[in-house]
Q: What sequence folds into this?
């Protein structure tokens, strides 16, 4: 039997089991590396999602409004809200009046006003939903876990229990979280301002870095002579791509703010700084995709009498564009997640108003996360996670677009 | 097909980036480089052209201490909502960084207010004066306490500032009139009445105002109780400062970042550790952490306000007098900040952890401010 085996095979036989085993081991180690990194990711995102989901809903409480109070009231709706909360949560001592008033949240007066407008005229008493204060919000979302009620006074806990027993608490979708600007009141704070700021900043960044980056890449790749000087340039560009982003912030401070006197904290300056940061990334990606276009295409165009510019713009560029766009989107995604360069130019700031233009003071999404994470009030913990979730979704969409674009438009030769 | 002229903007732009990596950016060199950087300059000037008209900044701009930031933002937000003025913009740059921006000069593109967790230094006043900022109005907001906290349910510490110094200083007296590197490993080494657990204190990094105040009040407070060190103060001031202000670096003091929330989280995970954080964080997390007594005084609202709790400090903000007439919303904002509603004894800032001044001290300060504003 053994005589039939080819001599080469026989030479390979000893140690075959070990070799198979080592292959198996390697695969196993590789697989466990993937599983480990995936589980880290799931743990991280899962944790954030778990904590952050609460930010998208807002606790509301049903309060009783008597027609008499409304009719007799003459002052602002804020004062009316105050009067009504005192009626709902009866406080005997003077010190308790404050507790009673702080059961409802900032902006409850607006809810009341809207609810009364919807009701029209009514008699007797009506029940309307208004938003609850952040302490009540935190407690209710934790199912009245005593550990989450430490900021409430005993009297407030009593009122809260009563409301819960009568089924007068609910959570509803928190549109304010997406439309409002920053606020120090958790029930009013939203990412609207930061979101608009991010959009404005990114659009300035895209406009500048895409135009400059692609022109630079085309020039360097298609027109510049290859010599020591261009080699030096290439090294520099690659180097720049890895420069810590805060350096670009310093540059922005020194040049855009101090020399040119552009407005501090504006998304215009933010976009310009981020454009400088993403430029090298875009130039490198664009050059690579230009290099990937086969020379035969250029040669054919030139051979048929096209000028160099025609060859590039009519034939090479359209083929290289998908790759360039992918690089640009990835660069933009990085720019979206940056806070460090924005710190130097004043975009890490408390800005309550939603920016209306490129020169208005603005923040950005990651900045909002950074700022909220440092606030002592507990209700901001879930807001922070909520903002991270929105940022992650935004990033995911951008990266997904990049991948789809690459898959759809990419040409293989 | 020859492109010999390579001195286009990009080259210079790159070189500038690399320079900035290695040394300070001087505006002169930036200008020089930019005169070559055709590409960037053209873009920037283009933008500057059409934004110039719109940049009449009307909102109050505030920079400075991260400790005052939470209070400043609350006043700013209320001010923006209750008046027709735009909401002031508050940046948290740290006290020192704030004064740098504040003292940069007078004019549209400089800030109006700087928050501080300590009084302005003479050197900073000089820097301001040199740049034309001469009318600096000092406003004291109130007080802030710094607590040493540990996990709820763990040992309830009672530390003296002497204990804190012996546990956390880099060098301590060796008992023979000299100094030796700190060799205390457990709290029991410091003071036999304390438990036999390893010294592990989480605190903010040196850039933080909280750290400055902690070092100045707690470490130095304990440090000067040693006669030989107290004697140093007169004979060798630099040495005294070095001994009293240097925190040990052998792992017993752990720099945990500026974020107090993070410190609170770490404390509840490690019941052996102590952490240094602001009083407002203790207030919000009383279900997770407890504060150590310092010099037998339990930290409380009243103990900080009357000064009996040793690690507390005043909070300030500084207003640029020159801007009062230029920025229309500055004066109303200043008035909102010093109003009874905000910084008074029962003001809304007190709800958020600010410790207001006593009635007498407050009246004194207010009169001073009004007098100062009247002079302008």
A:
């Amino acid at each position: 039997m053994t005589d039939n085996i080819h001599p080469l095979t026989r030479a390979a036989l000893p140690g075959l089991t070990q070799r198979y085993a080592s292959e198996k081991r390697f695969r196993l180690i590789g697989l466990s590396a993937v599983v480990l990194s995936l589980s880290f990711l799931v743990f991280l995102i899962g944790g954030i999602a778990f904590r952050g989901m609460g930010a998208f809903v807002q606790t509301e409480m049903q309060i009783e409004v008597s027609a008499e109070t409304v009719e007799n009231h003459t002052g602002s709706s804020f004062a009316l809200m105050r009067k009504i909360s005192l009626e709902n949560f009866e406080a005997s001592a003077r010190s308790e009046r404050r507790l009673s008033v702080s059961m409802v949240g900032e902006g409850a007066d607006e809810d009341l006003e809207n609810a009364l407008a919807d009701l029209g005229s009514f008699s007797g008493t009506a029940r309307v939903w208004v938003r609850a204060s952040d302490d009540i919000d935190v407690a209710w979302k934790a199912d009245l876990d005593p550990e989450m009620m430490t900021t409430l006074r005993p009297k407030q806990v009593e009122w809260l229990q009563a409301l819960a027993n009568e089924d007068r608490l609910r959570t509803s979708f928190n549109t304010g979280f997406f439309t409002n600007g920053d606020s120090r009141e958790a029930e009013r704070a939203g990412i609207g301002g930061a979101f608009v700021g991010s959009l404005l900043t990114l659009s300035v960044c895209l406009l500048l870095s895409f135009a400059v980056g692609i022109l630079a890449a085309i020039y360097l790749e298609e027109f510049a002579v290859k010599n020591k000087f261009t080699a030096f340039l290439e090294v520099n560009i690659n180097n720049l791509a890895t420069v810590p982003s805060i350096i670009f912030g310093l540059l922005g401070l020194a040049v855009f703010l101090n020399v040119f006197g552009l407005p501090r904290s504006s998304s215009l300056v933010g976009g310009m700084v981020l454009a400088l940061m993403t430029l090298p990334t875009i130039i490198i990606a664009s050059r690579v995709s230009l290099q990937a276009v086969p020379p035969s295409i250029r040669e054919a165009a030139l051979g048929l009498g096209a000028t160099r510019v025609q060859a590039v713009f009519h034939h090479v560029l359209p083929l290289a564009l998908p790759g360039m766009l992918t690089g640009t989107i990835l660069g933009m995604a990085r720019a979206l997640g940056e806070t460090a360069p924005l710190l130097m130019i004043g975009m890490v700031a408390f800005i309550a108003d939603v920016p209306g233009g490129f020169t208005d003071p603005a923040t950005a999404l990651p900045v909002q996360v950074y700022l909220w994470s440092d606030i002592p009030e507990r209700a901001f913990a879930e807001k922070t996670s909520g903002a991270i979730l929105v940022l992650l979704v935004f990033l995911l969409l951008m990266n997904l677009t990049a991948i789809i674009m690459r898959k759809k438009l990419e040409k293989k030769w | 097909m020859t492109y010999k002229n390579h001195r286009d903007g990009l080259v210079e732009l790159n070189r500038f980036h690399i320079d900035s990596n290695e040394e300070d950016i001087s505006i002169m060199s930036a200008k020089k480089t930019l005169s070559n950087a055709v590409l960037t300059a053209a873009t920037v000037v283009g933008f500057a052209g059409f934004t110039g008209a719109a940049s009449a900044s009307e909102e109050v701009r505030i920079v400075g201490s991260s400790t005052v930031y939470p209070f400043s933002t609350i006043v700013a937000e209320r001010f923006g909502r209750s008046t027709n003025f735009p909401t002031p913009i508050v940046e948290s740059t740290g006290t020192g960084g704030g004064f740098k921006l504040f003292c940069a000069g007078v004019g549209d593109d400089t800030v109006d207010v700087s928050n501080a967790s300590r009084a302005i230094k003479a050197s900073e006043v000089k820097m301001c004066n040199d740049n034309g900022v001469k009318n600096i109005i000092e406003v004291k907001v109130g007080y802030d306490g710094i607590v040493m906290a540990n996990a709820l349910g763990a040992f309830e510490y009672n530390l003296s500032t002497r204990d804190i110094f012996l546990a956390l200083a880099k060098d301590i007296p060796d008992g023979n009139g000299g100094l030796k590197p700190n060799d205390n490993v457990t709290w029991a080494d410091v003071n036999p009445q304390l438990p036999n657990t390893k010294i592990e204190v989480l605190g903010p990094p040196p850039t933080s105002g909280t750290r400055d105040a902690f070092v100045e009040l707690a470490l130095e407070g304990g440090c000067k109780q040693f006669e030989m060190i107290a004697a140093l103060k007169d004979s060798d001031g630099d040495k005294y400062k070095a001994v009293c202000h240097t925190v040990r670096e052998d792992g017993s003091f752990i720099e945990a970042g500026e974020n107090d929330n993070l410190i609170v989280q770490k404390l509840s995970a490690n019941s052996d550790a102590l952490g240094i954080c602001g009083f407002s964080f203790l207030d919000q997390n009383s279900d997770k952490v407890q504060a150590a007594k310092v010099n037998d005084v339990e930290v409380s609202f009243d103990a900080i306000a009357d000064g009996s709790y040793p690690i507390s400090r005043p909070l300030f903000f500084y207003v640029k007098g020159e801007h009062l007439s230029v920025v229309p919303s500055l004066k109303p904002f200043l008035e909102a900040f010093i109003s009874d509603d905000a910084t008074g004894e029962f003001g809304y800032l007190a709800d958020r952890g600010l410790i207001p001044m006593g009635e007498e001290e407050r009246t004194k300060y207010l009169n001073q401010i009004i007098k100062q504003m009247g002079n302008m």
Q: What stands out?
A: Residues 56-179 of chain A form one domain. Strands of chain A lie at 57-66, 125-131, 169-173, 349-350.
